[in-house]
# Entry
Amino acid sequence: MPVSEDYLNFVIDQLSEVGEFTQKRMFGGVGFFHEARMFGAIMDDIFRLKVNDGNREDFTSRGMGPHKHGRGTMPYYEVPVDVLENKTELAKWSKKAIILSKKKK
# Structure
């Protein structure tokens, strides 16, 4: 299912406090990149951020888990609605994902 333009525009607007980033349509979704590293994605009209040991607790403590794809999972967790709707809080979570996207697992 392709990403709706309204939702994409909403997410882009909500990320306005993050700084420079680009987005690219891919595999029916949209990837969000900082310095050529993907830190977030819209999959199934849900905005997700990259997760590893450095920020996993932020998500799991809020009941969020990894994106399920086929039989496996991807290291992108749904952003809680209250975070997505708060530009300043979303910027904090996104910047953490940006830093983590530059590190090896």
User: Anything to note?
Assistant: DSSP finds four helices and six strands in the chain.
